[in-house]
């Protein structure tokens, strides 16, 4: 699959890259263009090929086929040290015996800068990552978020055209990870450097990326802005990877005006948007937060299909209520309602009507 390109000229061009390890194909014919200044996230489960693709861009692996270009120059055969690219690893790989300033300055070796120029570059990077006053500290005296910023400063010291980040926030706890996501994005905006980020965390990808590329079994299966992938997934794999989703199996009815289709399911007919041949086995994907239960607040202004079931569980999650509804065929749908709600919530054990807005239901291949 070839990803759509942002309007600006591509900084990075990946052309049908393939990498095999023995009989296993880790990256399978991936093509992708990235614009200058773009933050692009490679998202997927372990073993999908995302880290291998990152290592191919960095030059740590050699492709079996395809080409990699940066600013139009072919990098495919260049060793890592000759590529205007740098990589930041999850472990950060800071030198424990060096100060923060020495760790950052280590990245300047071989650039031919004199001592004054190097000191000015380090001082600028310390300001960029908001660590002024920490220059003399050792890494063990820093918090996880501070160590992450030191590693980022060191990776940026050589002013790479492209920065590669392999699970950069994976070692941080949830609260610190969310704070650092914002800091990382702010730094990138100030610099305008292109970032390619590898992550298995969809929330991290959605928080950081201008576009996300979902990888499955070595292939790039869908590329686009986070909202497009979340609301219009191309497959049940993408739908499930980006967040919780209800998948209702059925058969696709004939074409209708406006791209709306009726899917005959064991729960009853469900109307959804999508394409496919009449009679094809499909699933209807709908996010829990788009389902509405009677008494839990409606979705005015949208056409809806309705189903009936029994409310079997409610869970309070602070900012929302999560519900589980058992349907007549024994399947369970999940709904999520933000608090405060506009109406009363049905009691557990009650028969409820589940409303599915057409604009929230998407037909996907089974």
TrEMBL record:
Keywords: ATP-binding, Cell inner membrane, Cell membrane, Membrane, Nucleotide-binding, Translocase, Transport. One of its GO terms (molecular function) is ATP hydrolysis activity. InterPro entries: AAA+_ATPase, ABC_SmlMolc_Importer, ABC_transporter-like_ATP-bd, ABC_transporter-like_CS, Mo/tungstate-bd_C_term_dom, P-loop_NTPase, Transp-assoc_OB_typ2. This is Putrescine transport system ATP-binding protein. One of its GO terms (cellular component) is ATP-binding cassette (ABC) transporter complex. Belongs to the ABC transporter superfamily. It comes from Methylorubrum rhodinum. It comes from the Bacteria.
């Amino acid at each position: 699959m070839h990803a759509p390109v942002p309007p600006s000229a591509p900084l990075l061009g990946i052309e049908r890259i393939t990498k095999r390890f023995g009989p296993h194909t880790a990256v399978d014919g991936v093509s992708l263009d990235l614009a200058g200044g773009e933050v692009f996230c490679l998202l997927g489960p372990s073993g999908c090929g995302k880290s291998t693709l990152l290592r191919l861009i960095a030059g740590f692996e050699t492709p079996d086929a395809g080409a990699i270009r940066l600013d139009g120059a072919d990098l495919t055969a260049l060793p890592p040290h000759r590529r205007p690219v740098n990589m930041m690893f999850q472990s950060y790989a800071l030198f424990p015996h060096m100060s923060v300033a020495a760790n950052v300055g280590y990245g300047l070796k071989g650039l031919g800068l004199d001592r004054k120029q190097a000191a000015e570059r380090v001082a600028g990077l310390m300001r960029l990552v908001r660590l002024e006053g920490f220059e003399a500290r050792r890494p063990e005296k820093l918090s996880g978020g501070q160590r992450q910023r030191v590693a980022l400063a060191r990776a940026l010291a050589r002013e790479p055209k492209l920065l590669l980040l392999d699970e950069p926030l994976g070692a941080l706890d949830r609260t610190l990870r969310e704070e650092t996501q914002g800091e990382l994005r702010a730094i990138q905006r100030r610099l305008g450097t292109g970032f390619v980020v590898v992550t298995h965390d969809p929330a991290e990808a959605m928080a950081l990326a201008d576009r996300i590329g979902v990888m499955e079994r070595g292939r790039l299966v869908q590329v686009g802005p986070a909202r497009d992938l979340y609301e219009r997934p191309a497959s049940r794999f993408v739908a499930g990877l980006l967040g919780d989703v209800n998948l209702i199996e059925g058969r696709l009815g004939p074409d209708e005006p406006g791209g709306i289709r009726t899917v005959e399911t064991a729960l009853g007919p469900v109307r959804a948007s999508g394409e496919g041949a009449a009679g094809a086995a499909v699933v209807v994907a709908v996010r829990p937060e788009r389902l509405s239960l009677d008494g839990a607040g409606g979705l005015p202004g949208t056409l809806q299909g309705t189903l009936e079931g029994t409310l079997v569980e409610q869970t309070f999650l602070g900012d929302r209520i999560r519900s589980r509804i058992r349907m007549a065929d024994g399947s369970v749908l999940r709904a999520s309602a933000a608090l405060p709600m506009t109406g009363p919530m049905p009691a557990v054990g009650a028969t409820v009507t589940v409303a599915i807005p057409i604009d929230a239901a998407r037909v996907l291949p089974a």
